[in-house]
Each structure stands twice: as structure tokens, then as C-alpha cells.
Amino acid sequence: MKTSRPKSPRNAQPRSLTRSQPRLTKKPDKTKLWGGRFQGQTETLVESFTASIGFDCRLYEYDIEGSLAHCKTLQRAKVLSARESHAIIKGLHQIREDIRVGRHAWKVEDEDVHMSIERRLTQLIGPLGGKLHTGRSRNDQITLDLRLYLRDALQHLQEDLRRLQQSLVTLAERHKGVMMPGYTHLQRAQPVLFSHHALAYVEMVERDKGRLRDALVRINVMPLGSGALAGTNYPIDRHYTATLLDFPQITQNSLDAVSDRDYVIEVLSGCAILMMHLSRLSEELILWSSQEFQFIDLPDGFCTGSSMMPQKKNPDIPELIRGKTGRVYGHLFGLLTTVKGLPLSYNRDLQEDKEPLFDTIDTVTTSVKIYAELLDQLTVRPEPMNKAVSEGFLLATELADYLVQKGVPFRESHHIVGNLVRECLAKGKDLLQLTEHELLRASPSFDKKAFRVLTPEAAISQKNIVGGTAGTQVTSQIKYWKKTLRPESKTPSKKKRTP
Ligand code: ARG
Fold first, then answer.
1. Is 306 a known active-site residue?
2. pTM, whole model, 2 decimals?
């Protein structure tokens, strides 16, 4: 797949074409590229309501790339002469340049990016421009554009996600040895290494990358040649078009090809899951930066103050990312709902796929980029974490396991230690402050050595099992990820991940 792609077409959208303020000029329908069948004029309101140009203009690079390939395919099929094809290609290059430098006039009356480019082509090279659309429909054209766009967008997103993972791994490495309470039910449960916690998110993001890579397999299928719905009469070599556009496969059913938006839904779904992960991270960052936890300090540049309360430093970025998760979920459900009742094949409803898709890609991309930066600047506060580890009976399980080593069945030892915790709570002390006598009274299997397991360090280093929080395990995970996430290694290292 090509890696170098043209500059972001995002800037392509002229201000005058935003949804709220379309530049409206009422024109007789003879000016419409599809106007032949019409006598009446398009209502102004209808024109702006049906236009997608305000948002699909960002697809122009892909639309032109597809048109160039289609033109060459038409020439190969002898539908266009070499001279004709050459003139069309030259015209398309000219339009691409004009759009890139902001010289192209986007007009609402052109309806969409396809017709805007075709109209300009005809202005530039005359009626010959009208031959480009031979054997093609906007229905197969738009799905091609979207596939090309997504191939690009996902490739960039993979890179941003890799960067995010790197930030998490660096964070883990920077705070090797820092202990914190591990939680279940948001209750202190067992001590873990902060690095272990950070690496949990690296795993989540790795799965997100995998899901989007999987989607790419189904995106990477070339639909041109499907025409409006039934295929085309012209003997075009679809495999040739696919080769030109670097597609490994072509679609096999024209009806499906023009009405399929599964790949968009898959991307939205992968992005929704990714946002769910970022939202969970947000929730932790918000909690940890609170006065109640004080585990971290968020960098000033990523927070805002209160207009009324001078002492406030608010975690707006995590809050917004948590909030935007709802918006991305909404896009997924919106499109699923749009498509669910559509008879085959193309229906105009499908135009409603683009705004949620673009907004999702933009939202996810910004969120991922911003989190990589924020994590690079995050301050971790080991003291409050340590304090939290030493209070709250986080070592109770260690004591129960100690009895198990002495031959006591785990259920029984669980019960014995539970009683000890109750006793401690009543006496207002910690497990470590129990006397040997008190231990022995709880179970004759206890001895002095039991106190040795009652340190968070011991509890952590005992979890020396693949996936566990012991320092050696975490260190080897950090090593694995550092190697895997190097920019040159595209896929997860084949090397065994465990020591
Ligand atoms: N703007 C349309 C879309 O996004 C392009 C295809 C329009 N096709 C049609 N027959 N009106 O889906």
C-alpha cells in the first residue's frame, strides 16, 4: 500500500460551505450534470439539503486518484483514445493543484465533490471532460473514495496509536518500582506496580490497532466497475484499476458493492471500542488527580481553572475525552440505524455515512494524539500511592496464602484471615501490628515468619508469573514493548513475549 499520500484534504472545506451557511445560488436545472430529465428548477432549500459538498470535499484527493485510475482503465479498454485520456489526466492534475492551493471554487449547486470536479474538468478541457464518467456512477465512485480515504486515515491512526503506546511504556519505565493499590470494585485489593497498570493500557491499545488492521482487509477491496448497481457495459479491466490503486482484491457483486457500508461501521465500531479504552483511562486520571487520591499531577498545559473558584485545576482533557466517547458511540449507532432498513442497492440515505465517519476519525485521532502528549508530561506521585498501599489490608490475601503453604485449605485460611481483619478493624490496627500471639490464636499454623510476607514489596515480587505484577515480569514486558513499538516494526514481535 502506498504510504505517501497527499496533504490532508481537511483544509479543503471552504468556510462558505459549512452546513450552517451554504453559499446558495439558484440556477436552472440545465446546469446540473444530471439535469437532462428535468424541467423544473431545484428548490433552493432542496439544493442545500441534498448537497454533500460541504463535507465530502475533503475526499477530493481520493476522488481524483480514483478518476485517474478510471481514465487509464477506459483508455486500456479503448473507450478513450490515448489523446483523450492524456487530456483528461492533465485536466485532473490541474484541478488537484488548484484545490490544493485553494483556487478551486466549491459550489453548493455542484452537489458533491464528484460533480464539482467533473464540472471543472469540462470547463478546462471541454466536452471531452464528460467522457470520464463513462462506465462509472457516483455510487461506485463514492464507495471507492471512502475506501481510499479510510486506508489513509487508518494508517495514520495506527501510527498515532503506536505513539500513544510508546508514551505509556515510557511512563511505565520512568516509574519502575513505584507501588500502588490495585483495585477491584474501586476498593483497594492488592498491591501492584504502577508500571503494570500503565502497561494494561498498552495491551488495550494493541487490540484496538488489531481491530482496525482487520477492518483494513475488508476496506481494501476495489469497487469501481460496479456502475450504479448492475455493473457496466464497457469491457474495462477491473483488476487493472485495482492494481493502479494498489487494491489486492476487487468486489464480486455490484449490488453489494454500491450498498455496502459494513467497512465504515466496522471502523466506527473499532473506534468506539478504542474511545471506551481512552474513556476508562480518563476516568482513572480524573480520580487519581483528585484531592482524594493525589496519585498524579496533570500537566498545567492540559488543565483549566475555574472562573469562580481560584484554587481549582480541572482535568478538562480527560473529561472531554470521556465525554467525546459518547459522541463516537452515537455515530456508530446512528449509522447502524441508517443502514438497517435499506433495500438493495444504493440509497441516498448512505450519504449520511460521511459526517459521522469524518467526525469519528477526527475525534479519535485528536484524542489519541493529545493523550500521548499528556502522558509524556504526567507527574506521578509515589508517596500517596505508597501510603495507600500500606493502609487498607491489601496484604490479607498474602497472609491467607501463607497458611496455604502450611497446608491449610485456602477456603479455611481465607476465613481465618477474614476474622483477623475484623479483629484489626475493631482494635484500630493493621495486620502488621498484630502480635505473634494474636496470629497463633487465629491459627496454630502461623509462625513469626508470617510477618515476612506482610510487605507490599514481597506481595508484588511473589506474583512472578507471566502476566503478573512482579518486577521481573513487568521489566520483561517493558522490554518487549520497547522492541515491538520501534517505528520500523510494523507488526507485533513474533518473539515470545515471556521470559
Ligand atoms: N453524495 C453521494 C453519497 O455520499 C454520492 C452518491 C450519489 N449518488 C446518487 N445517485 N445520488 O452517497
1. yes
2. 0.90
